């Protein structure tokens, strides 16, 4: 790539990378908060809660993220006046909020399934042991079941983070200059495919950093499962 | 297997008859198909519009056997370079920036760019100073987006994949203004969605940014094809075919 191009669009792509990281971390955080009640509802004995949470997960995992973003962004654009009356238009007017909303709801569905599976994987004997010690339900869940569930949830969580980073490129279709959006802009002026190569490389580096940190977290959290000599 | 054989035979027969009918030149034409009234898909998915009619007239003039390929705008030049088709007839403005990558025929039409603003915004001045702090939309990879990027640094620029999406966001009040081709916007402003908005400010046609009209792009080194297309453009302008197509779409001359 020639130097002028790099001087002009390099900073824009770096800014784009920061936008991508903000988008992903905010969505993952909000999604994690939403996912806990959904996972609980999925495991609940209440039929209504189970049905509703299943429908939620089914919808968000079963339809493309791109379609969800289009639906919320351009769909809300059609509903400007009803939304104004409800006092919600300021939120939907902003592409950033729309994307955060969709990404959070989407990742919440995936995270809820990860949690549900992980909680289910904790041996039933753990629950019985806690009961026999006279521990309350909440204490049992937060001090015994949940920490053990998080160990088996860790790797699928890592996958979800990586999928979100790559999936966030979709934000560029609704005018957000994330890494992909900035790359498209640079490409449109230069028709130089190197732009996309560099964008891919930037995504790859971020994903690699995530992968290595997860590897380290996994080793740390499972050290009690290895024989003493390896600890 | 039998079906496959029949299909192959039919294709061969078709190819032979087509070859016999034309002078043998086969031309694949790339267009966007999302830029009414110049090129768009009708309800049945057929490509229609001014560009398409012009392309068909040129092909008839050149006795060429033409087929169309619809391609998203932001990949339309790369796909030409990758030989997915041989010419772009898609309202592409002839600019120096694009000439670095492709060759152009003479223009086949030329309409100025104009700002369209939300009537309620009260914007009268569409200079860079007047639109400072405002949000302006345009389709990405266009003369309009390039111009905004260079000249309207004090405004927030939003870029979209298609012109329809820019229009939708102006109607929704997410944009204060948009910059686009005046003939395209004229069509939209007549619709119900467009009632929100109106043209404001002068025509923009500085050749440095807006080029010298829309031309047909071909790969560099395909001078023969370009010359043939130029000849055909002259011919349909002279024999009245161009005027007939012009009048089908516009109450004024776009040449």
List the defining traits of the structure above.
heterodimer, A: 231 residues, mainly alpha, MetI-like fold, 10 helices, 0% strand, flat, B: 255 residues, alpha/beta, D-Maltodextrin-Binding Protein, domain 2, five-stranded mixed beta sheet, 38% helix, globular
Give the CATH superfamily of chain A.
MetI-like
Counting DSSP H or I runs of 4 or more residues, the number of helices of chain A is 10
For the report, how would you describe the main beta sheet of chain A? none
Number of spatially distinct domains of chain A: 1
Helix and strand run of chain B: HEEEEHEHEHEEEHEHEHEHEHH
Q: Largest interface here, residues on each chain?
A: A-B, 18 and 23 residues
In the CATH hierarchy, the architecture of chain A is Orthogonal Bundle
* Distance between the ends of chain A: 48 Å
CATH superfamily placement of the largest domain in chain B: Periplasmic binding protein-like II
Task: Outline the low-pLDDT stretches of chain A.
Answer: none
* SSE ordering of chain A: HHHHHHHHHH
Count of distinct strands of chain B: 13
Q: Indicate the multimeric state.
A: heterodimer
Q: Mean pLDDT of chain A, nearest integer? A: 93
Rg over CA atoms of chain B: 20 Å
**So, CATH architecture of the largest domain in chain B?**
3-Layer(aba) Sandwich
Instruction: Could you tell me the CATH topology label of the largest domain in chain B.
Output: D-Maltodextrin-Binding Protein, domain 2
Going by helix content, strand content and strand pairing, the class of chain B is: alpha/beta
Describe the strand arrangement of the main beta sheet of chain B, using strand numbers: 5-1-6-13-7
Structural class of chain A: mainly alpha
């Amino acid at each position: 790539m020639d130097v002028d191009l790099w001087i002009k669009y390099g900073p824009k792509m770096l800014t784009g990378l920061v936008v991508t990281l903000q988008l992903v971390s905010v969505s993952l955080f909000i999604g994690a908060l939403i996912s806990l009640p959904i996972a609980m509802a999925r495991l609940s004995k209440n039929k209504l809660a189970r049905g509703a949470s299943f429908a939620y997960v089914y919808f968000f995992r079963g339809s493309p993220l791109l379609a969800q973003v289009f639906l919320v962004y351009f769909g809300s654009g059609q509903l400007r006046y009803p939304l104004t009356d409800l006092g919600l238009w300021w939120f939907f007017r902003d592409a950033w909020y729309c994307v955060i909303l969709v990404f959070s709801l989407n990742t919440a569905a995936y995270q809820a399934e990860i949690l549900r599976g992980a909680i289910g994987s904790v041996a039933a004997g753990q629950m019985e042991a806690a009961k026999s010690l006279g521990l309350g339900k909440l204490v049992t869940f937060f001090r015994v079941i949940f920490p053990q569930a998080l160990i088996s949830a860790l790797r699928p969580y890592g996958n979800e983070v990586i999928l979100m980073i790559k999936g966030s490129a979709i934000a560029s279709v609704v005018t957000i200059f994330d890494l992909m959006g900035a790359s498209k802009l640079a490409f449109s002026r230069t028709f130089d495919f190197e732009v996309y190569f560099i964008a891919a490389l930037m995504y790859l580096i971020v994903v690699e950093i995530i992968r290595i940190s997860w590897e380290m977290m996994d080793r740390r959290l499972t050290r009690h499962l290895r024989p003493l000599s390896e600890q | 297997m039998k079906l496959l054989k029949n299909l192959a035979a039919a294709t061969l027969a078709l190819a032979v008859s087509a070859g016999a009918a034309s002078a043998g030149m086969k031309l694949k034409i790339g267009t966007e198909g999302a830029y009414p009234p110049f090129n768009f898909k009708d309800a049945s998915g057929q490509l229609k519009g001014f560009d398409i009619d012009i392309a068909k007239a040129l092909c008839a003039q050149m006795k060429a056997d033409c087929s169309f390929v619809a391609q998203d705008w932001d990949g339309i030049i790369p796909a030409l370079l990758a030989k997915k088709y041989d010419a772009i007839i898609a309202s592409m403005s002839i600019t120096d920036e694009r000439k670095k990558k492709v060759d152009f025929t003479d223009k086949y039409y030329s309409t100025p760019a104009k700002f369209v603003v939300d009537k309620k915004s009260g914007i009268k001045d569409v200079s860079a100073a007047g639109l400072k702090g405002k949000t302006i939309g345009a389709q990405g990879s266009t003369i309009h987006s390039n111009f905004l990027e260079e000249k309207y640094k004090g405004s927030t620029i939003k870029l979209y994949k298609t012109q329809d999406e820019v229009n939708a966001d102006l109607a929704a009040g997410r944009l204060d203004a948009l910059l686009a081709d005046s003939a395209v916007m004229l069509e939209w402003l007549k619709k119900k969605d467009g009632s929100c908005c109106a043209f404001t400010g002068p025509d923009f046609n500085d050749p440095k940014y807006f080029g010298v009209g829309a031309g047909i792009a071909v790969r560099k080194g395909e001078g023969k094809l370009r010359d043939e297309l130029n000849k055909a453009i002259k011919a349909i302008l002279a024999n009245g075919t161009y005027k007939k197509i012009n009048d089908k779409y516009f109450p004024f001359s776009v040449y």
